[in-house]
Amino acid sequence: MARKTVLVIDDDPAICEIIAINLRAAGLIPLSAHDSLAANRLICEASPDLILLDWMLPGQPVLSFARELRNNHHTKNTGIIMLAASSEEADVIAGLEAGADDYVTKPFSPRELVARIRTLLRRRAPEWTNDVTVIGPLTLNLASRRVFVASEDTEEILDFGPTEFTLLHYLMNHPERVHSRAQLLDSVWGDQRYVDDRTVDVYIKHLRARLSKVNLSDLIQTVRGVGYRLTTETFHERRTPRQPITSDLPV
Questions:
Q1: pLDDT tens readout for residues 121-171
Q2: 73 has which bridge partners?
Q3: Would you say the pTM of this structure is higher than 0.90?
Q4: Using H for helix, E for strand and C for coil, what is the string for 4-61?
Q5: Which spans in 80-220 are helix H?
Q6: What pLDDT sits at residue 195?
Q7: 138 and 119 within one domain
Q8: Is residue 178 assigned to a domain?
Q9: Largest CA distance in the chain
Q10: Taking burial as the number of CB atoms within 10 A of a residue's CB, which of 4, 18, 38, 96 is the most buried?
Q11: Are strands 146-150 and 138-141 parallel, antiparallel or unpaired?
């Protein structure tokens, strides 16, 4: 399973580091920003899967920023957990009404915070709970570790190696999002620090070669100077594929 990215927005570097240590220990990828400007830049660059937002946000009222996040098409479906020193009911309600999914009071237990993060990620990320992902005629079944390509009356199985499968799974679950090589390394290869940017290029080439056998090599696009994107635009004019049977059991 590809690792999830959590953006911590807090003006205290020490708190950011403590949270980051616990996130890494839980298999998550931490990012940190100390104000709303830096946070917006990272959101555009990294598209985090979840945001931890401190109540004492420099430069902009936190409730205003939370509403902006919820109205932004990049983050409207991103989980938001608000961190605050106040446990007053009025503050909790204000935070939730501004767009936060959860509200955690300081001081907090790092283990409890990670548990809340995992719970919210499961609710917000369908790929954590669904075995099957469909992009156009391409169907990826996580439980059976198989990839199918459907045509009018046939279904062909494509053969992928373990890393190719994981990379394709990650891209299919984040369509139309541009991923830098560093982001793909973190999300797909994780702590295998012997790999580098060239590794990503090689595996993208392998994916395209296998997809070219069924005329889908243009599914993965190169964004010059940035990275790679899996596009769905090529299927907009095609017939909607059959809907797969999905599992309600967590992966």
A1: 876 654 444 568 888 888 888 877 889 888 766 778 898 888 888 899 999
A2: none
A3: no
A4: CEEEEECCCHHHHHHHHHHHHHCCCEEEEECCHHHHHHHHHHHCCCEEEEECCCCCCC
A5: 89-97, 110-124, 162-172, 181-184, 197-212
A6: 66
A7: no
A8: yes
A9: 61
A10: 4
A11: antiparallel
Examine the domain organization and report whether 116 and 140 are in the same domain: no
Least confident segment among 16-20, 80-84, 86-90:
86-90
Question: What confidence category does residue 243 fall into, taking pLDDT thresholds of 50, 70 and 90?
Answer: very low
CA-wise closest residue to 33 among 57, 65, 60: 57
What is the rounded average pLDDT for all residues in the chain?
A: 83
Chain-centre distance of CA 43, in angstroms? Answer: 11
Residue type, 163: T
As a residue count, the chain comes to 251
**pLDDT at residue 182 greater than cutoff 50:** yes
Q: Which domain holds residue 216?
A: 132-235
CATH code (residue 191): 1.10.10.10
Is beta strand 132-135 parallel, antiparallel or unpaired with respect to 138-141? antiparallel
pLDDT at 10 over 70: yes
**Which among 14, 49, 12 is positioned nearest to 183, based on CA atoms?**
49
Q: What local confidence, expressed as pLDDT, does residue 2 receive?
A: 59
Is 50 among the domain residues?
A: yes
Could you tell me if 182 and 119 lie in one domain? no
Tell me how many domains the chain contains.
2
Which three-class secondary structure state does DSSP give residue 103? strand
CATH number at residue 111: 3.40.50.2300
Q: Examine the domain organization and report whether 75 and 104 are in the same domain.
A: yes
- CA distances to 48, 64, 89, 149, 249 from 221, rounded to whole Å, are 21, 36, 48, 19, 32
Mean local confidence (pLDDT), 228-245: 60
